[in-house]
Design brief:
two-stranded antiparallel sheet, disordered N terminus, about 60% helix, 13 helices, 5 strands
């Protein structure tokens, strides 16, 4: 009876809006790219000391993400981004309700941890492998051997699987909007969870404002800096730091479109240009699938320019900003 009453108390709380769901998902996808930029900077400045961090960044982030998500699941029954937007995970069935305080049952906690940390890591590794095979296929490096045919089949299978999963996520979200399901995401539905607005946090006995008030008043003996206080301060800094990074990415996206840039001057015919005529400026070999970059007018191999633009967002020669969707393939023999 007590378990069922607790379940009613949780489920009667407000249902999160679609904007809260979308915002917490966007926040969760912001942290890893932001940290990667920071690691890349330190690796370029201190290559001997920090170069290994860039090589093992995925594994280092896996460890960091595991610790962060485990802490929030254990203490707040929510992921890092869900907790930031005042949400918590709630079992749909009253038989799976909380056993101790706000902590999820052990099975659901472990399942949430796997889907939040391990599955995205494996997915990204698979994407990297498939992307390499796709680039090899576009460059014409995959032949008709058994292994190459298997790689081509894997590329098609991955594309189909990715499309089906994204469609299923969209359908799940649409059903949540129309009230046909209480789980806004497939991962939550798989575990039998939903998200609700978290109750107001209990007031803390000793906060940072109390510490600063004691220092300003000169009561040094009353000022105490404890590990829980430091931990709360660190987690708060991580939360708002991630939100600030998300805000900066939004501001960067508001930059004027590429079409508004001034037209570049045509390249001059130098001795170097004549020497490498009809060759890719990146690999200095005859073009494989010739592709022009409209922002600069240079022609590259499709594989060379697509990799560079995808990674750097600029033309390999002029360094003008561009994007992958502006690439135009050429068919000189047609």
């Amino acid at each position: 009876m007590a378990v069922y009453a607790a379940h009613l108390t949780r489920t009667l709380q407000g249902t999160p809006s679609i904007f809260q769901i979308a915002a917490q998902e966007a926040l969760g996808s912001t942290i890893k790219p932001a940290l990667k930029r920071l690691i890349e900077y330190f690796s370029s400045v201190y290559p001997n000391k920090c170069g290994w961090c860039e090589r093992w960044y995925d594994e280092l982030y896996l460890l960091l993400d595991f610790c962060l998500q485990y802490h929030y699941l254990k203490h707040y029954a929510a992921s890092f981004s869900e907790c930031f937007y005042g949400l918590l995970r709630v079992p749909i069935s009253p038989s799976n309700e909380f056993h101790s305080g706000t902590r999820l049952p052990e099975r659901l906690e472990k399942g949430s941890l796997i889907l939040l940390v391990l599955v995205p890591y494996l997915k990204e590794k698979i994407e990297q492998i498939v992307e390499k095979w796709r680039e090899d296929n576009e460059d014409g490096n995959l032949g008709k051997s058994t292994g190459d045919l298997a790689r081509k089949s894997a590329i098609k299978l991955y594309s189909i699987t990715h499309f089906v999963l994204e469609t299923a996520k969209l359908v799940q979200l649409a059903r949540y909007l129309t009230g046909r399901t209480v789980s806004p995401a497939l991962e939550l539905a798989f575990l039998g969870l939903t998200v609700k607005d978290a109750p107001p946090p209990e007031p803390e006995e000793y906060t940072w404002s109390d510490l600063f008030k004691s220092l300003r008043a000169g009561h040094i003996s009353d000022a105490s800096l404890s590990f829980p206080l430091l931990g709360r301060g660190l987690l708060t800094a991580v939360q708002y730091g991630a939100f600030a990074v998300q805000l900066l990415r939004w501001w960067e996206a508001r930059a004027p479109p590429i079409t508004s840039l001034p037209l570049p001057k045509p390249p001059e015919k130098t001795e170097h240009a004549l020497r490498w005529k009809n060759k890719c400026p990146v690999c200095l070999q005859p073009w494989k699938v010739p592709t022009v970059l409209p922002v600069s007018g240079y022609v590259f191999c499709y594989g060379c320019v697509s990799r560079h633009v995808r990674t750097n967002g600029t033309c390999p020669v002029t360094r003008l900003p561009t994007s992958e969707h502006t690439l135009v393939r050429l068919y000189p023999g047609v």
